[in-house]
């Protein structure tokens, strides 16, 4: 067993102990043997490993089952909501449904119109649970404005601020129909508390996101992370690029470009090659991955996992009767000589257009080993920064540089990218969005691009089970989750009308 895995299991157990059956992280006036925030802070100043353990627990929450508050087989952390988003974007088709996961609630878009569906609660609870975990670390180290002298504590505070911002940003994307800075959308919690608060405006939430990320970038300046699981300076910069871009202010697109350039140069990461994009997307060591997690048997994920829903070469629903495939129309839009076309099975029958050569367990055995998941999770790739940079440049009217940025990815995918020379303005932006859909299929990015670019989903192809031939605008109520019934019942400051 790897040393870091042992440590992660230990701190995750401690974190879950603090969580208990409710979401109470730390009892600020404990009557038991648990430490309170002040005691933890005092201990952390002398022994940084204490609070470092807590930030590792934050990361483990990203892939722990049940963090959305249910026992459902679609409740497995951050990647669960990447998959929700992929279905809502229409780029992932539920082409066969035997067990019913995602059928009515997500692919038929019932949950996004009915706050009593638990899918809304899962999204809400997971990200607020992440926020609460991050707040535990932040408060332990002295709060948002703290400036620890110890380098380890500085890095830990930076990671916690980044992770809080990451969770709030995903909530803005999933819970607001369309970006409107004056609309009240989410409660803001900056400390560990059990007291509910009312909603803040989108402008206020984004101000916190940007403040957290800018502070994180400073605190992480000299931090060398031990693995790609941790957020470093460049990942925080990438998060900030996304946050600014999603506010759609053209006057700030230069900031997005500068941040993307900083990530590209700072990581030294290379765009995945044509061979790598059909290499399984199962290894965090892949040079093109800049943030992800090394899953292994000691962590113990099995059927209830992203791989357990998506991969026919794992012991999974995708093998057993719930097929997930690329939308037929999107597949048809991929040129025959594009390396990414080979990611999808072109035959007929059950496996038609499934990603048999994009996402797969290394065993390459249909139905796979029934043991623990060992294929890794990808959260962010360097290709995202090249394509987001291209998008920002195009919005600034800099078509030539935008084409150059896009070619950084497409030259690894196509034998000839000269067709880009004829694209400018709206046509170039449309191509960038299409390439986002193709390049990041199944990675949870298309939904974010739809919202960011105020465009529509693709027209659902013939291999969907519902809404065939239909598309949905970015601000369609059916693409956005509802504040869940349980939050409305427990928080007196929020009701269905406000």
Automatic annotation (TrEMBL):
GO annotation, cellular component aspect: cell outer membrane
All copies of domain RagB/SusD, residue ranges: 347-457
Key word NAD present: no
Source organism, top-level taxon: Bacteria
Pfam families in the cross-refs: SusD-like_3 (PF14322), SusD_RagB (PF07980)
Location in or out of the cell: Cell outer membrane
Domain SusD-like N-terminal: 99-241
PROSITE patterns: PROKAR_LIPOPROTEIN
UniProt entry tagged with the keyword Membrane: yes
Name recorded for this polypeptide: RagB/SusD family nutrient uptake outer membrane protein
Protein species of origin: Winogradskyella ouciana
């Amino acid at each position: 067993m790897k040393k870091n895995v042992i440590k992660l299991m230990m701190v995750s157990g401690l974190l879950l102990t603090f969580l208990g059956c409710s979401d109470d992280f730390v009892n600020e006036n404990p009557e038991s043997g648990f430490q309170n925030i002040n005691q933890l802070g005092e201990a952390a100043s002398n022994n940084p490993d204490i609070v470092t353990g807590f930030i590792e627990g934050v990361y483990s929450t990203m892939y722990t089952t049940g963090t959305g508050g249910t026992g459902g087989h679609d409740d497995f952390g951050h990647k669960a909501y990447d998959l929700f988003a992929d279905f809502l974007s229409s780029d992932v088709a539920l082409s066969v449904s035997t067990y019913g996961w995602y059928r009515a609630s997500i692919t038929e878009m019932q949950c996004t119109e009915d706050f009593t569906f638990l899918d809304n609660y899962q999204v809400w609870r997971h990200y607020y649970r992440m926020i609460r975990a991050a707040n535990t670390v932040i408060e332990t180290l002295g709060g948002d404005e703290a400036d620890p002298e110890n380098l380890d504590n500085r890095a830990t505070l930076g990671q916690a601020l980044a992770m809080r911002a990451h969770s709030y940003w995903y909530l803005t994307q999933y819970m607001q129909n369309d970006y409107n800075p004056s609309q009240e959308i989410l409660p803001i919690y900056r400390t560990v508390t059990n007291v509910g608060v009312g909603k803040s405006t989108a402008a206020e939430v984004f101000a916190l996101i940007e403040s957290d990320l800018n502070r994180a970038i400073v605190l992480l300046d000299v931090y060398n992370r031990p693995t790609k699981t941790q957020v470093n300076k460049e990942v925080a910069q990438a998060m900030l690029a996304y946050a600014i871009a999603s506010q759609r202010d053209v006057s700030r697109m230069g900031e997005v470009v500068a941040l993307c350039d900083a990530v590209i140069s700072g990581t030294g990461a290379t765009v995945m090659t044509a061979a790598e994009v059909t290499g399984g997307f199962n290894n965090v060591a892949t040079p093109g991955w800049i943030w992800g997690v090394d899953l292994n048997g000691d962590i113990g994920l099995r059927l209830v996992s992203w791989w357990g829903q998506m991969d026919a070469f794992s012991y999974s629903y995708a093998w057993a009767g719930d097929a997930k495939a690329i939308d037929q129309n999107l597949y048809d839009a991929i040129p025959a000589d594009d390396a990414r076309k080979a990611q999808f099975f072109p035959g007929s029958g059950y496996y038609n257009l499934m990603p048999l050569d994009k996402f797969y367990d290394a065993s390459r055995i249909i139905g796979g080993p029934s043991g623990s998941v060992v294929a890794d999770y990808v959260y962010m790739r360097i290709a995202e920064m090249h394509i987001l940079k291209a998008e920002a440049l195009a919005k600034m009217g800099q078509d030539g540089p935008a084409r150059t940025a896009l070619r950084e990815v497409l030259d690894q995918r196509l034998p000839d990218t000269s067709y880009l020379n004829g694209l400018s303005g709206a046509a170039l932006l449309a191509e960038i969005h299409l390439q986002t859909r193709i390049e990041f299929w199944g990675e949870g990015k298309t939904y974010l691009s739809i919202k960011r670019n105020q465009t529509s989903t693709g027209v659902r192809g013939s291999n969907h089970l519902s809404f065939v031939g239909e598309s949905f605008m970015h601000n369609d109520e059916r693409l956005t989750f509802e504040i869940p019934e349980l939050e409305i019942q427990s928080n007196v400051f929020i009701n269905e009308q406000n």
